[in-house]
Amino acid sequence: MLFKRIPTVSTKELERRLPEKPTIIDVREPVEFRGGHIPGAKNVPLAKISTFNPKGNVYVICQSGMRSKRAAKQLMKKGHDVVNVRGGMMAWAGAKRGGKL
């Protein structure tokens, strides 16, 4: 477990999986989330990820991929099935909700 790799997907791959309604956790701060997020994503800021207990497989995203990687590590240590989204919202080209600041 010490050196277990975190599974990752590209933003394109996550976009292809959206019809399956995957659980997506956006670990950015609320103001960033309101600035634009993936439809259906739940906002759980990185600072609060330790208290979050998702059910099933979870995709974790942030702005660039660094915070989501940290969040994924924390969730994996708790035994959750986690996939980090490479490139984060900076790489996301799909539909977004929000964006009105």
From TrEMBL:
Residues 18-101 form the Rhodanese domain. Gene3D superfamilies: Rhodanese-like domain. InterPro entries: GlpE_sulfurtransferase (IPR050229), Rhodanese-like_dom (IPR001763), Rhodanese-like_dom_sf (IPR036873), Thiosulphate_STrfase_CS (IPR001307). It comes from the Bacteria. It holds the Pfam family Rhodanese. Transmembrane segments: none annotated. Coiled coil: none annotated. SUPFAM superfamilies: Rhodanese/Cell cycle control phosphatase. This is Rhodanese-like domain-containing protein.
